[in-house]
Amino acid sequence: MHLSDKPYDKPIDKLAERIKSCDWCRLSGGRPVAGEGNPRAQIMFIGEAPGRQEELAGRPFIGAAGRLLNQLLHDIGLERDEVYITNVIKCRPPENRDPLPEEIEACRPWLDEQIRLVRPRLIVLLGKHALGRFLPGLKISNVHGRPQQAEVPGLGSIVFFPVYHPASALYNKGMRTPLEEDFRKIPDLLRSIVAGRWPS
Ligand code: URA
Q: What digits encode the pLDDT tens for the residues 17-40?
């Protein structure tokens, strides 16, 4: 084994260890789920919060919504280990309720640091909470499938791509087609960003 292959040698793994002992909000005491994937990914996917299965396994998006996410990725020629997957908040809210503004705020430095370390070219925002975290005031129904460039304090200029949350598409069948169509735009969008053709 090479020295740098040791677990927790990578900055992203060290960060995950710190996230696991976070006590910055009322959700602490649970089992935080930091995120997983390629620490050099060109695309980062950001969901809302871990659910029960994610909390038990310590991995994001492994339940029903995760299986749909895997399928959507596979359909556009991507696998989970090529991208980085995380959430706006790292702990499961009780009864899977929506994250509170103060919980999102408490988790802000963790997600910001993950973005700083991975430095993705494109961030796919899964659902309204991820959208609201970076682009407050926009409605997911208006902006899904439309790339948005924004200056984020402390992080610089980022290209975001909002889409419906996979869980929403599971209980609202009408969202499945737009979600699939939006995912199909991702490879071309990434190519354009990398080639410097977007934003034009
Ligand atoms: N939903 C999310 O937003 N994140 C997960 O990790 C799982 C389900």
A: 999 999 999 998 889 999 999 999
